[in-house]
Structures are given as C-alpha cells and as structure tokens.
Amino acid sequence: MCTIGGVLIFGDRLDEDRAKRIEEVLRMVIIKGEERGRDSFGIVSLSRDGELNVFKSKERPSVAVSKMPRMITEDTVAAIFNNRAEPTTEYVKVKNEDDIQPMIGERIVVAHNGTIANDKDLESKFGLIRRSKIDTAILPPLLEKFWDGSLNGFRDVLVNYVVGSYALAIMDTRRPGRVWLATNFKPLYMAWYGDLKTLFFASLDDYLIDDWNKPIWGMPVIRRVEPYTAMEIGIDGTWSTVSLRKEGQVKRRVLVIASGGLDSTTAATYLLKQGYDVALLHFNYGHRAETQEDRAIKRIAEFHNVPLFEVNMDFFKIVRHSPLLGDGEINRVDEGREGAEFAHEWVPARNFVFIALATAIAEAYGYDYIATGINLEESGAYPDNEMEFIRLLNRVMPYAVGPNKHVELIMPVGHLVKHEIVRLGLEVDAPLHLTWSCYDNGEKHCGRCGPCYMRRLAFKINGVKDPVEYELPKEIEEEFWMGARPYEVPKRPGQ
C-alpha cells in the first residue's frame, strides 16, 4: 500500500563526495518507489547527536524530491521515508504535516507500509495520544509506552499489541546509528552498497538497483527481510533478528502429497519416524494409472493408520496434452530408459496445481507443513521436481496464506536419487510392497515405462528384489533379479 525505505550509514563522518553519492541513491530509491505510493511523501533523517531533519510534501514523490533539500549531510547516520498510497479507509481530505509519514513521536520515528486494524482500540484502551487519526500515528506512542528498547521487547509489542499488516522502519533519537526493521507479510528488502558503506532498504528489490544489467561485481548485495521477522541493525556492526511468530504457533503436522508411489510413500514413512503427525493427500486427476494409484494410497493410509484426503480433479480433462491424460502414447524406448531421462509424460503444471490446492487444505485444516515426493533423480527430466522449485515457492508461501498462518513446503527425499530413496524406504520400513509406480493401469507393473525402469534398477542396486510384479517374461525377471535377496514385508506400526 506504500513504499517505505531509507538508509543506515556506517563508518566515520561523511565527506562531501560520499554524502552526495548516498543522497543520489536515496533519491533514486524514492522516485522508483512512487510505483507503490503517490498521495504524499515524507522523509526524516537522523544525525549522530539525535537531531531530526524533516521534509514532508503533499505532492507525489517524484515532484517532492525535486524540491527536497539535502537530507544526507556529514552528520547523518540514518534516514527513513514513506511514499504513501492512501487507503480508502484512511482517506484524509485536508492533510497537515502530522498526517504525512514518517510519523514522529516524542523520540520514535516510524515509516509504515500496511494497515493497523486496531489503532482505535489501542488509543482508547491505553490512553495513547497520537498526532493524526491515520492508523500509523498510533505506533510512536505505542512503542514509547511499551517498548523497553530491546529487540525482544520490540517483538513483544508487535506480537502482543499490533493487529494488521506491516513493514516497518524505525529510528529512535535516543539511539542514533541504529534502525529497526520488521515485517509480517508486507515486502521489505535491503541492499548493501559496499563502496558507500551504506545499507539501503525499500519495499521492493527493484527500487534498490539502478541497473540490473551491471556485472555482478558492480551490484550491491540484496537480501530480503524474511516475512514475520524483526531486525535491529547498528552502525557498530551489530545485527540481530527475531521471529515474529508466536511461540507454539508452528507444530509438527504435515500433509504429504502422496501418489501411492515409492517417493511419497518413503517420504511419509520417514516423517512418521521423525515424529510428525502425518496425513496423506491424494489427487485423482483422470490419469491412466488412477485406479491402481487410488488402490495403493488407500492401502498405504491403512497400513500407517493415518488420515487420507482424496481430491477429484476433473478439470484436468480440459488440460489434456499429456500421454498420462490420454493424449499420445507412453514412451517405452530402450525398456523405459528414455522415458526416465526425458519428460515425455509431462502433465502441464501438475505439481504447481497440486501444491496450490494442498496449501489451501493445509491452511484450512491446520497443517503447518506440506511434504512432496519430488526427488533429485526425476529433476533431471521434470523441472517441477527440481529442489529450486520448492525453495522458490517457499519464498512466496507467506503471501499465499492468511495473516499469522504458517505453511511451509518440505522435501524429505528432494536430495535423493531413486536408489537412495529405495534404500531409505527399506531403512524406515516403508510399505514399498503396497506402492504403485507404473504409468499404466494393469494388474501388474508394465516394466517398460520410465518409472518402471527406474524402480527396477533402484531395487537391484540395493540388492533387494522388488516386491511388485512386472508384465515381463519370466526368464528376463529371473535373470534380472539373480542374487537379489527377498524383500521383507514390514510390520504395521504398533504390531
């Protein structure tokens, strides 16, 4: 709803050249940040002796900056600004300086992006006096009343008193040379300009860079302030962070996206052994092996005595364009090897869709984690099995769920290839005999598609005969499994 940003300047007092260069970058950040706020602009800089320099304007930031005096001088150690996008619920027809951020209290200065939903309740309950009816104005007196100056104390105020959304940049005139940053789900990024010994921060990383095409050695170091995190940063080199999630908020309940195959079954069993409260989530999406996979997942859920969610997804009939959905033939070249190494059977956006629906179910039913059976082996052919896919989705997950909700993707076998997954499955007593891996829907595995090829070879590498049967000639099977030890069916948990 706004752009906030600012600087923290390290090192000795500024010379004229360095001060000008910092000012230039700061003005660039302000102007680029107009994208997120055009209704007013304000900036406050802080000197080493705790003096404030204030400039506020009712004009849009790009116009206001052209009239703004120098804000970075030899004595400046920090500055924060706000480009306001005025919410409909906070509209002020006639603004004065106190209605323009940053909000200034007796000693606390706050730049805020978001909405404080309980500002009126805080005002009446604690007798707080604020200088504007705009919601952000409640934060300086609130902090001055309840904040003990520590990072944990800052956290406690935000967690225990503030209801709403926020990214915050805060200065304290009693402690110049420090800034406090905090965010629940509103974005906030930092950029370290090493040549200037200055930390810049703003609502989006794009605002902190003048040219993304520069060589890497000419770029500042960019870092995101992680959602639900508060930070204290000092020019003395101190750097501290603390979580804004309430204690006990994150539990060990995990929803496992489970096909009924080797990977997800091993992942689920491993998580059970690690003490997680596991439930299985299975999708029937009109694919060729739907009947066998559905039978397998029911048996696996019964074996582990865990809840099973099943979702029927008829809309994949519209997607089509995959041999698994009836368009084209399964690749069986070189007994399935080619199918194991190239994504012939790719289903458009399947895992992306699965994870989106799993996120909704996990949030609704209170599961803090979603586990998948993605693995290193299949990432060679399928991009949605690459670990980076899950890592990047986790970066957006705080924006995909409700405020103060926690849903995180985990990949217990994401770093393993197929024979390592089989080995792990054997070690944790996963019911591998109940799993279904084949792309076809026969009574036996076909033995000639990509998953069958990988499965058979993975068991052979481990010296164990695969417990499932294949539609392959008896003599081929006897020769292939020669010397392998029999598979030992694990006991059900509790037996």
UniProtKB/TrEMBL annotation:
Zn(2+) binds at C438, C446, C449, C452. InterPro entries: GATase_2_dom, Ntn_hydrolases_N, QueC, Rossmann-like_a/b/a_fold. It catalyses: 7-carboxy-7-carbaguanine + NH4(+) + 2 ATP = 7-cyano-7-carbaguanine + 2 AMP + 2 diphosphate + 2 H(+). Its cofactor is Zn(2+). The keyword Ligase applies. Binds 1 zinc ion per subunit. Residues 2-236 form the Glutamine amidotransferase type-2 domain. PROSITE patterns: GATASE_TYPE_2. GO terms for molecular function: ATP binding; ligase activity, forming carbon-nitrogen bonds; zinc ion binding. It comes from the Archaea. Pathway: Purine metabolism; 7-cyano-7-deazaguanine biosynthesis. Its EC number is 6.3.4.20. Keywords: ATP-binding, Ligase, Metal-binding, Nucleotide-binding, Zinc. Belongs to the QueC family. PANTHER family: 7-CYANO-7-DEAZAGUANINE SYNTHASE. Catalyzes the ATP-dependent conversion of 7-carboxy-7-deazaguanine (CDG) to 7-cyano-7-deazaguanine (preQ(0)). This is 7-cyano-7-deazaguanine synthase. It comes from Vulcanisaeta moutnovskia (strain 768-28). The gene is queC.
